[in-house]
Amino acid sequence: MTPAASAPSATKQALPLRSVTVRFAGDSGDGMQLAGTQFTSTSAVFGNDISTLPDFPAEIRAPAGTLAGVSGFQINFSSTEIFTPGDTLDALIAMNPAALKTNLSDLADGGILIVNTDEFILQNFAKARYASDPLADDALQRFQLHRVPITTHTIEALKGLDLSAKDAERCKNFYALGLVYWLYDRPLDTTLRWIDAKFSRKPALAEANRRAMTAGYHFGETAEIFPVQYRVGRATLPPGKYRNITGNQALALGLIAAGRQAAKPIVYASYPITPASDILHQLASQKHFDVRTLQAEDEIAAVTMALGASFAGSIGVTASSGPGIALKQEAVGLAVMTELPLVVIDVQRAGPSTGMPTKTEQTDLFQVLVGRNGECPVAVVAARSPSDCFAAAMEAVSVALRYMTPVFLLSDGFIANSSEPWPIPSVDSLPPIRIRHAEPSADFAPYRRDERGVRPWAIPGTPGLEHRVGGLSKADVSGHISYDPKNHQHMINLRAQKIRNIAAELPPAAVEGPPQGDLLMISWGGTYGAIRTACEQARERGQRVSHLHLRWLNPLPRDLGQVLRAFGRVCVAELNMGQLRTLIRSEFLVDAAGLNKVEGRPFNVRDVAARISELLR
Amino acid sequence: MSTITAAPTAKDFKSDQEVRWCPGCGDYSILAQVQRVLAELGAPRDRTVFVSGIGCSSRFPYYMNTYGFHSIHGRAPAIATGVKVANPELDVWVVTGDGDGLSIGAGQLMHALRRNVGLKILLFNNRIYGLTKGQYSPTSPIGQRSSSTPFGSIDAPVRPVSFALGVGATFVARAVDVDVKSLQGVLRAAAAHRGSAFVEIYQDCNVYNHAAFAFATDRETKEDNIVYVEHGKPLIFGKARDKGLRLSGSTPEVVRLADIAESELLVHDAHAASPAHAFMLAQMQYPALPEPMGVLRAVEAPIFEEQVFAQIHDSRQRAGQPDLAKLLASGDTWDVS
């Protein structure tokens, strides 16, 4: 019998909780990402606020059972608004000893620990570098340990189905999912619908996954080992239609929306790289929106294809991560020099060099701000959360087209893959993108500027606007090659001023919390949620802390200097060794402190709270 | 009664910029022939785009009164691909050199050719780096002495036409800068080709590598050193047109027409599906064999940008007109009231 869609189980007591953080951890081949995304969809559709943290190795399949092969998916689901995937785990599902070893340190004392005992065998202890059975260790007494032979139960439940032993065993993630669904009193219908759609042509697998999940659910209900269920109620989110969305999905949708608002095709050229490739996959399936996707031969070809498309009147967009951005920089300089629109998305990952491809960092700020030859300013905007990537993409395109400049859009590995509920905007509410094209006239000059310092976009195919652009220094107005020293300085000034002029249309610095106080915490990009949460909690404790999140890193808000001076101390929190802090210090001569972490993982709220208390001591 | 004619002349394609190549450079002749051929073909200036990379040859767009983009080293084929995908109606010409196209930009050149993007790519081969003052290039012969190879180059050179054929180019031709008639013919054929057209032009750098192609330009001897290839015609050459090429096994050999029947001569087939014949011609090298001039290969194949648009078209047939509201609300959704 399938449990009712949302009727709470009546057999056991259900304790209400405000929010819960759960992590599924297992081998790369164990389907943990799938279990996690299903739990996410179910919780989102149920009405919780959610924030997720997928965490997986770069290797597609590291040797089974090893520490290198552990893949995890963390979900924070809540009855109140939340902005982070959670610091500590309330429950950990460890499918093998390696998953236990790499994840146990994040489990809260007293937390629920579910282990698949079938994998806790001698040979796996060695692979996980355990000398003996870790389940026999007294240290686990701090947790509510539940030993469940998940593999055995799964195979048992699937008896009689026409499945190979291997296929049956692979359903164990759905068994684990079902068990956790029971534990948190979640409805099964969202995942049942997904199974039906996913395996519509493989009815045996559909039935197997349904049965495995239901078996896990029933085990929770009937086994004596779980004394209670927990219940996390619906969150009160602003009214509207919602969906769950990852950062990379939101970027793709934002680009498509921007193309519509500007009435121009998107030409998206990129070279596959973790964690940005997904944007290409998303866009490649939306060709009917006149999105022209090109998988280029390399990073340089990708950015130059995009730039060529912009020259010819389309919206040229490329994306990459740190190592690929380094390769693109010469072409970004060409876009600065020619003053053509271009959007370059940098989904940052842990560096330097190849670094840790699947782990997050904010270490590319300097690279995008100043990592080119010559005086070469570009506009830089950073998305702050998965769903914010939608608006950030639209803004990046809008500024690129209206100011004839490359715009770097910074995302990171965390928000790219993590997800949250997104109130779907109505298409009518999307801001328009109004472009000024050059009109043929007797005095047309390709580098004649308007009152904002912006040159006109003169598009090939327009009679009477024939002109040449290039990377050589060019004369003001005419754009002809020029080696005149004064003109060179003048053009550098003009291009820098054009970028500064963008600030006129940006909102002033928005401080969350009182506009003055003892401490101002500054964040940018994907660390928004952790810093916001820590600052809110600090204020609840009576600390005089406010939060300023910077969306545009170039130009900075015009009133930033004023805002900084209203606080006793300023601290810049970022997942690098102090890049924005250095900029703030040099721009505003403020003795800014830092909160810095470069471990490939987002900030925990407690990291931030500790730093706040330290600075206020 | 005066008549106003709209027919463009070569002069219409000259920009107002002073040409800054060294006096005596082979680029002047190429520029003049391109302007003449475009005028003759009635090319619309507003729909013509010249894209280049870096190097002496890459200054070319500044001198054309069309749209132009002087970009960065080696990347002109990728920029031009972007232009073509943005607007396939444009006639896009790429001007590159042996360094720009085959050293730093070999990666981009290869992929534009294999994709068969509708670009006309002119590679000016002077076998030397001119703009950086005379270092050897990837087409310099072994032993070439230059500022960076005082004891002679030890790098085996790449042959541009062989490279193009090797990566699947659908149109491959060669001409010499000062051989005006042949160059014009090749440019006309390139302009008419649908897909990527690759033209190698032997170009004299009279400052750093003068007379590198004297064998192909000397009035007295050139006709003994080159062979003009024409589809369907036997390969005959020589000042007295008394020599021809015949296959000996799978290699070409020079024969005297007097000694053989004409039916034994190798007949040029530019349209063969296999590039083997064209590749064999491309490998012929002076002084052992005459070097071929003209169109070595011209075949039809699917064109990149047309396929890009075909997929968009098919996608609309399948998915219908774009509906952003529907796209934004795809997947699992729920209402909060």
What does this structure look like?
The complex is a heterodimer of chains A (617) and B (337). By secondary structure, chain A is α/β, with parallel strands linked by helices. Chain A is 36% helix and 22% strand. A 7-stranded mixed sheet of chain A has the order 11-10-12-13-15-14-21, with helices on both faces. Chain A has a 6-stranded mixed sheet with strand order 3-4-2-5-6-7, sandwiched between helices. Chain A starts with 12 loop residues before the first strand and ends with a helix. With 337 residues, chain B is an alpha/beta fold. Chain B has helices at 27-41, 76-86, 98-104, 106-115, 160-166, 180-192, 214-217, 222-225, 276-282, 304-319, 324-328; strands at 48-52, 67-70, 91-97, 119-125, 171-176, 197-202, 226-229, 236-237, 243-248, 251-256, 291-298, 333-336. In chain B, strands 2-1-3-4-6-5-11-7 form an 8-stranded mixed sheet, with helices on both faces. In chain B, strands 8-9-10 form a 3-stranded antiparallel sheet. The model of chain B has no long low-confidence stretch (mean pLDDT 96). Strand 9 of chain A pairs antiparallel with strand 12 of chain B, so a sheet runs across the interface.
Question: What descriptors fit this protein?
Answer:
heterodimer, A: 617 residues, alpha/beta, Rossmann fold, seven-stranded mixed sheet, six-stranded mixed sheet, 20 helices, globular, disordered N terminus, B: 337 residues, three-stranded antiparallel sheet, 11 helices
